[in-house]
Amino acid sequence: MVVDPQAQMLGELKPAAVVDAILAKRNLGTTRDMAPAVIAVGPGFTAPVDCDAVIETMRGHFLGRAITQGSPQPNTGVPGVIAGYGKERVIHSPAVGVFRSDRTIGDIVSAGDVIGYAGDTPMVTQIDGCLRGLLADGVQATEGFKCADVDPRGDASYINHISDKATLVGGGKIELFALDEARELLAGGKSRLVRYTMGGENSDTGMICGGAICLC
User: Fold this and answer.
1) Are 169 and 55 in contact (CB under 8 A)?
2) For the chain, does the N or the C end have fewer beta carbons within 10 angstroms?
3) How far apart are CA 37 and CA 53, in angstroms?
């Protein structure tokens, strides 16, 4: 397990593949020469310019698709709709300040509840539901910064499972390696992408699994 926000250990670890899953909606420095195979997630990337492939993250017909020529759909700034709610699900900071909260992920909340503060300014949820995303205490928030996410379905057990969107996006990456391995077997040659197996070590900023490093 390694915390390496700037991916400075790439030269030492020499991973077979790098997956940029930062989800910043833009490229923060990932290049195609970081590893034999470089895969990006979400908008801000163009294959094969700065990565070998990029995975679509926009909810809809193309969610989870692996793009090897071109870019995913641009960021709209509007969250996907769940149980009839879109932008209402997300709570943004109303002011500049250090975030603090006595809530935890999995809490059931009601419209009007305070879920945290930016400095002394309270943040209030617009809808009933289950708190499924929450900024860590002590993080400096700017005005408009995303600080929390409420699932209107209100089922706290969902936080213990991978979401449908995350499953499709993750599956898109694994599909790339599976398809490339099949091509290698058929052609009898050496593939650019390498064998990928699930499992390994996790950290807050990077995941090493099957010879791949995932920048998160």
Assistant:
1) yes
2) N
3) 9
Cis-peptide into 48, omega within 30 deg? yes
Tell me if 161 sits within 8 A of 150, measured CB to CB: no
Task: Map tokens 């899953």 to a residue.
Answer: 21
Report the alpha-carbon distance of residue 124 to residue 121 in Å, rounded: 10
Written as six digits, the tokens of 112 are 């009007």
Tokens 């250090």: give the residue.
Answer: 98
Provide the 3-class DSSP secondary structure of residue 206: strand
Q: What is the pLDDT of residues 16-57, one digit of tens each?
A: 888 898 888 899 999 999 988 899 999 999 999 999 999 999
- What pTM was estimated for this model as a whole? 0.68
pLDDT at 99: 97
In angstroms, rounded to a whole number, what is the distance separating the alpha carbons of residues 13 and 50?
20
CA diameter of the chain: 64
The radius of gyration of the chain's CA atoms, rounded to the nearest angstrom, is 19
